[in-house]
Amino acid sequence: MLFQRRMTDKEWILQQLGSSQDVTLKNLNHADNNVDILYITSVTDGKILQDTVILPFYRTNESGYKTYLQSLPNQEQPKKREDLLSQVLQGYVAIFTGNQTFIIDVQKLLNTTSGNATVETVIQGPQKALSESIDTNHNMVRRRYPQASLRLIHMKVGSLSQTKVTMAYDENIANMDIVERVKDSLRTIEVDVVQAAGQLHRAINKKQRTLFPTMMITERPDRIAYNLAVGKVIILIDGTPFALIAPSVFYDFMASMEDVYHTYWTSKFIILLRYFGLAVSLLLPGLYVGLTAFNTEVVRFQLALSIAGSRIGVPYPAYLEVLAMLFMMEMLIEASVRLPKSIGQTATTVGGLILGQAAVEAGLVSNVMIIIVSAVAISNFVIPINAMAFSMRVAKYIILALTTFFGMVGLVIGSIGLIGYLTSLESFGHPYLKVFRETQSKG
């Protein structure tokens, strides 16, 4: 009869931690003393480890070293393997000497070095954002997602910049086909310098001229942990406080992390509100042109009279009126981004009010047009992810152009064409309009 040898604690922990490249096993050998130390570099402080564990080893013999370890106030001798693994994941170092195992607290706490989220803000929820240091981001991800199945794979991209990037995924949940696709994409990209997440996204994307993003850019560690838990792959980049999430589908770009923190019905209502805002931002300019210039019989008689009355004295067609005001709105939005934060919002708000009022009084645009442009601007800001908001800003001009030439038929054709285009998109093999679920992640 064959008996299977029982794994030691060290072998079992190494098996659980797998191929993650931030897991370190070192053998220390001095005179007759021999120990192994196991730790995770991203959550342990190298200086504390050196001063507390490594240097004392070379200054004492075997019995003296054990006595020293037992005297440390932050040492423990775990009774269960699971407890040992849990503490290693938190930043403890495991010391295997003879038939004894010690764990010493050498945690590296770096969360305070990062700033608050400025792009993906929430009212309720964590406020911290990623850092520009990839080592700090490793630490934040490990602390947000302390699972033994988390794998960190280090690479370098950019033939000149040699930028460090890290792939992070949960080996027990992620679809390995998607993991391999992302890994191959990183290995095969041809770019000289990588300095930002958006630049890497463009290099990875095989369809260079696609209108919609197929990877999400995020600054939030809680969003990273949430997406790791549903089987997605995270790409951390050195030198930027933003990470990439793959695959990302249309629904992901309409969701905010605050949806997870609200009650069920509140979050569902807010999500529906976003989709309504998306429809308003996308279709309202074209709808206005179609109803005023082509199909006035569709609206009620009183509303048609009201719109016609407001346009008395406007010297050009409805589509030029819409284009002029939309372009002015786009310039105000860009100005708010480029101006210093202390004056940006004030300048654009005052500028918008003065410009709109002056245009109406001069008879260049109608009152209804001002209402429509304001509604479009507000609705566009409801979309929580900037990449999708920018894409929809472009898409509304395509629908507006079709409506200008073909009326309401053009609006319908543009809407159907947009849905068809979204249907044709994929994100690393996953359909763009299909919700990514954990139950699907294992393939």
TrEMBL record:
This is Spore germination protein. Belongs to the GerABKA family. It comes from Radiobacillus deserti. Keywords: Membrane, Transmembrane, Transmembrane helix. Pfam families: GerA. It comes from the Bacteria. It is a multi-pass membrane protein. The keyword Transferase does not apply. It is found in: Cell membrane; Membrane. GO terms for biological process: spore germination. GO terms for cellular component: plasma membrane. Its main location: membrane.
